[in-house]
Amino acid sequence: MSNLIEPANIFATAESIEYADGSVVSKTIVKKPTGNVTLFAFDKGEGLAEHSSPHEALVQLLDGKAEITIDGNPYHVVAGQAIILPANIPHALKATERFKMMLTMIKTS
Question: What percent of the chain stands above pLDDT 70?
Fold first, then answer.
């Protein structure tokens, strides 16, 4: 069963994904060879360990607060703000409180 949101349907981004206690939840909105758009919901204290991607990505916070570390530098991001994760640079995410985000990954050849 796919968790993709069907095209030509209006949806509220932040309300399209729910928090789960002690977990990180994800839901794909668009999945194409050229890139993906994914919603995430992080419970407080949850996160993603440091990693890197060969693709640039845009993180848009929809709810809550996060600490996003890029190349060892911490950034405190709140709902309504966005930050770009550069390609091939280590980054990590941590929920300083519950937060929801939309990740838009642009793939390059």
Answer: 96
Residue 59 has pLDDT above 90, yes or no: yes
**Cβ(51)–Cβ(103) below 8 Å:** no
Neighbours of 55 (CB within 10 A): 15
Are the CB atoms for 28 and 36 separated by under 8 Å? yes
Task: Indicate the domain borders of the chain.
Answer: 14-106
Output DSSP code: residue 16: G
Q: Which two tokens stand for residue 12?
A: 């509220």
Kindly state the tokens that stand for 66.
């996060």
Superfamily of the domain at 14-106: Jelly Rolls (2.60.120.10)
In the Cβ-directed half-sphere of 72, how many Cα atoms lie within 13 Å? 0
Pairwise CA distance, residues 89 & 56, whole Å: 9
